[in-house]
Amino acid sequence: MAYSNDYKRTISGRAVSLMCNARRRCKAKGIELNITQAWVEKHLIRGTCEITGLHFCFEPRDQNTTRRWDAPSLDRINKDLPYTEDNTRVILWAVNCALAEYGTKTMLPILKAMVKGIESAQKIAATSVSTGTHQQGDTGQEHGAIPTAGTREDYYDLDHYQRTVRGEDADYSAKKSGGDSVGYGSKEVGTSSQPESIQDNGVSYGKIVSYEELCRHIFDKP
Fold it and tell me: How many Å apart are CA 121 and CA 107, to the nearest integer?
């Protein structure tokens, strides 16, 4: 007998549906059904799962599930015994499925471990958020961090000269040269962002007007 979804949303309608399903299972398995609709309704009125204490939902299932996880269901505590008031409880469908498949002895340590693991993960996540801690990636750009670069054996390269022209390597170059001018080794470059001239071992190349020209003077000198 089919029942409408509106009827199944009521206590009596859901009790009738549970009893019909249980009666069909008993017939298929050859076991007895020794509970009444009134007994089922009394447990549904309470509204919560006898194991978890979570509330039942009487809404119909969605299209992607066979039954709602929080729907009420009849569970035989001892699977070798029939449905009796002492051997039957009304619990969540999801809990019933787990216990019916593996039994309490198997599921109990698993569920305890799940609860412990999930709670620990939530505490760690909450601590990380409250303290603002984070792990930096390779670049660290998101948090303003500077990535660690490999050791550059030759600071006298194009990149170094480019930054020198822009005035970005003035402090570092001054330390390397140990003098008032900026440079490395025997090469000296003025501290201004646009150097007037550059000398290499006493040979002057005149005014440098661009980075490209500077490179040509350094690497393509006669």
Answer: 21
